[in-house]
Structures are given as structure tokens and as C-alpha cells.
TrEMBL record:
PROSITE patterns: RIESKE, RING_HYDROXYL_ALPHA. The lineage of its organism: Bacteria, Pseudomonadati, Pseudomonadota, Betaproteobacteria, Burkholderiales. Keywords: 2Fe-2S, Iron, Iron-sulfur, Metal-binding, Monooxygenase, Oxidoreductase. InterPro entries: ARHD_Rieske_2Fe_2S, Cholesterol_7-desaturase, Rieske_2Fe-2S, Rieske_2Fe-2S_sf, VanA_C_cat. Coiled coil: none annotated. This is Toluene-4-sulfonate monooxygenase system iron-sulfur subunit TsaM1. Residues 7-108 form the Rieske domain. GO terms for molecular function: 2 iron, 2 sulfur cluster binding; iron ion binding; monooxygenase activity.
Amino acid sequence: MFIRNAWYVGAWASDIKDQPFARTILGEPVVFFRGEDGKVAALEDRCCHRGLPLKFGAIEGNNIVCGYHGATFNCAGKCVAIPGQARIPSAMAVRSYPVVEQDELIWIWTGDVAQADPAQIVSFPFHQEWPHLTHTQHVKCDWKLMIGNLMDLTHLAYIHKSTIGGDPDAHTTAKFEVSPSENGVSFIRWLLNTQPPQMYVDAVGFEGRIDRWMEFEFTAPGSVKQFTGALNVGEEAYEKGPRQGGFALRVFHNVTPETKTSCFYFWSGCHGYRMDEPEVTKTLFAGLRKTFEEDEDILEAQQASLLRKPLPMISTVHDAAVVHAERVMSRRVKQEAEAVSNVVRGA
């Protein structure tokens, strides 16, 4: 079951151009379009006349026109024109979804419209402040597996040996602080006095051992903000000083369910070093993409295995953040199910 009363990323703002843009969100077909006023709308991707997906239509002004018989719908989903027919039936409408464009992202709400508060959207100002590139991966796994992957960093030394992994012993013996919250969990891992991964060396030229940190903040249901960095040993990284210079990376992750066994993984990599060098941004992006595609391969294999045999899955001491995230998501799902049940009983 999905968490519906929440904001999810539906697309990058740059995805929504002069043509309808379709995507399945939480099992529901949705079509996004940008009107001539620049505002983005999201409608059910199904014309209520004869059922053709609206993605086969065209944008005219601030409306979308069905590509089958020309019925025209506004951004609220109301039919405003039918070729050759003056009277428009009141039932001639499709579902519209609340949409917010923020931080280069298109956020969509698929639940109770009355609860759609834009103040709940996770903010990521680094899209305005640091050089970055963005990407979307279509991953054939349960979205919760992707969240679990992001909350568990001990896998870095094994899956990402050639990119961001580093010393396996440093990962398994890292200092680890976990801070649960009502709607998520944060953690920080410290890899002290360790050899830098090659990506870090290439980025800022480390010549000796480093103190390395990884800060992650998960907000249910699908957003993770990451601050990863490193300084030379002795530059007070662990003392949580200014942590300026060295390697500095901010990553925004968002996981949006498509179906029960597939999801969209939106991510951006923002760098706080050599910020006036576009080639550095491209190099970082290439490294991150390789890293996250390694995760994709593992997660799809994990999903296939779990479909065959879902249990047991036994947690270890390294899974503290994963366990907290799973508890938050389970609680949210249960709360929504109980709310629906209460409404049904009341009816």
C-alpha cells in the first residue's frame, strides 16, 4: 500500500516543456503539461469521452486538447470545449492533482486535496546555490527498497569499490549517530583517518588520509537530503567546525512509487568545490550516475529475489536508520488505512 497523503516528485521542471508529459504515479496514470502562462498542471491521463490517454493530445494556451476527438480540458480538469457541441455536460471532467513547482522539481499530491499543504514540501536551496546536474532513473523495485538502500551506507565499500566506496573496514567501524524524528530519521557516519576514494582524489587532490562524513536526512515518504564531505586529517571535520574546503557534495534524492515493484529515482549532485568549472560538474555527474546505476542493478536483483521468497530479512547493527525509516513508513500507511476504514464505517 502507498502513502497517498504526501508530496511526491513527479518530474524535473525541465521535463515539462511544450508537449504533454505522462508518468504513472502510485499506480495512477498522470499527464503533466505547462500552459502558456508557464504554470504546470497535472491531470488524470484519460479523456472522459472515450478513454484515450491525454498524453496523445496537444497543449493549446493553458489547456490540453484530447488527440482523439478534440475535447479540451483546463488545468483544473474541467472540459471547456467540445468540437461541434455548445453544451458541455457537468460530468465532462477529469481528476486534477495539486502541483507545486519548487527547487527545479514538480511536486504532486495524489491524496486528499484538503490536506495538500505546500509547506510540507522538502526544501533544497542548493539547486540555486551550487553547480549541479539532475537525473531520473526508472528502477524496477519496490520504492521502500530504494529508501532502505539510501539509509544503509555499509554497502558502499562492496557495491561502489571503484567510485565512492573506499576502505571496507572504515565503513564497518565508522562512528554512527542516528536521530529519529516523527516523520523520518537522520544519521551521520564518520570515517576517520581513512584513505580517500578515487573520486575524492580526482575532485580536490587529496594526497594523504582524510576525515570523511556522510549526513543523511530522510523525510517520509520519499525524500533524502545528503551532505557528504571530507577534509585532511587534523582540520577539525569531526569537531563539526565550519567544514569548509576539501570535498563537499550535496545530493538530493527522491523516490516516487510507480507500481508496487517499480519506482522513479530522482537525484541531483551539487558540488561546493571548484564551483566555476563546468567540466567538474560533468565529471561529478558521471561518477554519481555510475554509482547509482550500480545500486539499480543490485536493487532489481534484490526485488526479484524477494518476489520469490520475501522472508526472512534479518537486520544487523548497521540497519538502525533503515529500521527507523521502515517504522515511519509503516505507521503512515497504517494511519491512512485506519482513516479510510473510519470513513467507510461512518458512511
